Amino acid sequence: MRRENNIKLSIIIPVFNEKNFLTKLFQEIKLYFDDSKNEVIFIDDGSTDGSTKILKELKETKDYQFLFKFIKLDINSGKGKAIQTGIKNSEGEFILLQDADLELDTRDAREMYDMIKNNSEIKCIFGSRYLSGKLKKNNYFFNSLIGKINSLVFNIFFAQSLSDVHCGLKIIHRNVVEKINLTVNDFGIEIDLASQIVRNNFYIYEFGVSYFFRSKAQGKKITWIDGLKSFYYLIKSRFFDNSVSTNLSILYSSIYMAFVGSHFGMGLGNTIFIIIFFIIGSVIGIHFKILTSSLIFFCIFIGSLFSKGNGTTFAVILFFILGIFAARSVKQYFLKTKFNQYL
């Protein structure tokens, strides 16, 4: 639990070999966040380029009002580990995650902070590099494509509508922090954080931010390979990091939907249908427990009793859609009752 204090905002900044940007970043932090009620936590993630020396010198200048915290990790452990360390050592009511490379504008961070602190209903704001008409500079098409695909997959898995899951600029309320348990140590921390926020029923707001990409020569570390690794974290966070009841629901709905798929096509086509329906079933199991999922199966069964040939296919699809709506209605009805865990 956080001790009683007057800190309103904790700015967590992971640093790994960023000597060329730290002085300017420090000046921008002073410009927008120089307040005794703010704390700035620099986590030096095993830097070897002189970043450690610069951070220590900046701390010793004493020409700032915020609380300056410097944490040194002996070996490079990854952005996720640095963020986890920063959160554990933070005390503010709000947690702002800010990258050290100046790809994202500190002025946008200030705007996000003003929004969340002045609206008690907002608990999470994610920056988005793909929203608004703010200034952008980005030549990395493939990295951008992977990021957008990851965001799309995340939205499908978690029934969200986010445009940029991977943006490094985020602000969340302490109440959210106390509900989650981050475990990913590398760049997959963005997926880990977003998925846990959604699982705990917090709504994520988005705010369009400026973006000024830097090249590999300037020290950019994340690559398209990290983007592909994010697919693994998406699968893991959605299909494995669940409660026992949810995993049982996924197994149950995957099996009955694969059974339904086995009635379509012939030969290779039949196998493809089974795989597709199995995947659809796994997504159903995420959103519906066994009882409400059974309602979908029942509707599919009713649909299979109508017509013959292609007519049966149409009837099954129609009753499947009706089953989804019926299951959602039942789920919403019992959402705030003692039967919620079963439906």
Structural class of the secondary elements?
A: alpha/beta
Strand content: 5-15%
Total E-strand runs: 9
CATH architecture of the largest domain: Alpha-Beta Complex
Read across the widest sheet, the strand sequence of neighbours is 3-2-1-4-7-5-8
The CATH class of the largest domain turns out to be: Alpha Beta
**CATH level 3 topology of the largest domain:** Spore Coat Polysaccharide Biosynthesis Protein SpsA, Chain A
Which key phrases capture this entry?
about 15% strand, 9 strands, Spore Coat Polysaccharide Biosynthesis Protein SpsA, Chain A, alpha/beta, two-stranded parallel sheet, about 350 residues, single chain, seven-stranded mixed β-sheet
Description:
The longest helix has 24 residues, at 310-333. This protein has a 7-stranded mixed beta sheet with strand order 3-2-1-4-7-5-8, sandwiched between helices. A two-stranded parallel ribbon has the order 6-9. It has 2 domains: 9-239, Alpha-Beta Complex (Spore Coat Polysaccharide Biosynthesis Protein SpsA, Chain A), CATH 3.90.550.10; 244-342. The model has no long low-confidence stretch (mean pLDDT 87). It has helices at residues 22-33, 51-61, 79-88, 106-117, 141-158, 174-177, 189-199, 224-239, 244-261, 268-287, 290-304, 310-333; strands at residues 9-15, 38-45, 67-73, 94-97, 124-128, 136-137, 170-173, 205-208, 211-212. The chain has 343 residues and is of the alpha/beta class. The protein has 12 helices and 9 strands. It is elongated and about 80 Å long.
